Amino acid sequence: AVASIAQEESVSTSNNLKMATRSRMRNGTFKQSHAPYGYSVRDGVFTMIPEQAEIVKLIFGAYKEGKGLTKIADELTEMQIPKADGKVNWSINHIRYILTNVRYKGDALYQKTYNTEFPFQSKKNDGELDMYYVRNANPPIVSEELFDKVNMLLKKQLESQRDLFEQKWNILERETRQLAIDKDKFEREKLIYKDKVYREAR
Prior knowledge:
Elements: H1 2-27, E1 39-42, E2 45-48, H2 50-64, H3 69-78, H4 92-100, E3 108-110, E4 113-115, E5 122-124, E6 132-134, H5 144-201
Antiparallel strand pairs: 1-2, 3-6, 4-5
Helix pairs in contact: 2-5, 3-4
């Protein structure tokens, strides 16, 4: 009973905090406590870190000029450029996160993730809850024009990859069906051959 009461109190406190946070997101007073690569944050105020901001610009420029995510990640790793955590093992996911984060054009998108009720778990917000978009939330590292151009290219690349996957999947399905037909044909011919051998042996 005591454990149940404690759980209810914990859930109630969590819900109150969520409501207060969402209210601040709606009215534009929410202060984010952590910043993405390229920025530092103090009391909700974002400040650019010059050397990291240059890397962010380099990433956007490289992708716009035609370099792929893997190529960019490999080059940064080879150059031993440290990430925010100090490590130098850049990946496709790191590059994609930077290229798609609206912070870099000066805006903010809140509640991209949310916490479930007990047991508490963090989940990606796929439309279950409202998101809050704030323009001019912080100093931009790249122009809105460059950001939008890069994200249009990313979208086209994703669509192209989907089309290619569908083409390969359709080919695989056709080959699988053909293999099944060929197998049935082989099994029938094998039975006919066995029957012929049996009759000739009598």
